[in-house]
Design brief:
Layout: H1 22-32, H2 51-62, H3 67-70, H4 76-81, H5 104-112, H6 140-151
């Protein structure tokens, strides 16, 4: 990638080759660091069912001093909005600048290796080492359903209505 004078002042979309939900990304990252639900070292709760998160977001949203700079706009809308992949606006992406895209499976294991819970553990054989399944990529159909479900609000949590 070199200097491109034609790119000055242009807007580019910074997205990778895979579309994931935040849940899928975090589950994959924690699995790479040998933290799983089975061992009790990793837990994800539904945002609308977690009263502690709702109280924290409400209190921080009511602070009279600079929530934009201090808490990075920590509110329920921001937390839920960021949990679903962004929609493409059709702008040029990073590949148009010559950036070579990589998948998560190519980069994440190396980047998260220092944070592995058992990084100093010496496995007796290769079959002992845990195998992490690759993350499930979100298709456009699934993403549309997630956006529709999100639009329902708290009623989406009631089984059979969503």
């Amino acid at each position: 990638m070199g200097y491109d004078p034609a790119a000055i002042g242009e807007t580019y979309e910074a997205g990778g080759p895979q579309r994931l939900t935040r849940h899928e990304l975090l589950t994959y990252m924690y699995a790479l660091t040998t933290r799983t639900k089975e061992t009790g070292t990793f837990k994800i709760t539904e945002l609308m069912m977690d009263p502690a998160t709702m109280v924290r977001a409400f209190i921080i949203g009511k602070f009279p001093f600079g929530t934009v700079n201090t808490f990075h706009q920590y509110n329920l809308d921001r937390l839920e909005r960021d949990s679903i992949s962004d929609m493409s606006e059709g702008l040029p992406d990073l590949t148009d600048l010559g950036v070579k895209m990589h998948t998560l499976e190519d980069k994440m294991p190396w980047e998260l290796a220092p944070f592995d819970k058992y990084s100093y553990y010496h496995y007796e054989g290769p079959e002992e080492k845990p195998v992490v399944p690759p993350p499930t990529v979100v298709t456009m159909d699934v993403e549309r359903k997630l956006h529709q479900k999100r639009g329902l609000g708290p009623i989406a949590l009631v089984p059979g209505l969503a």
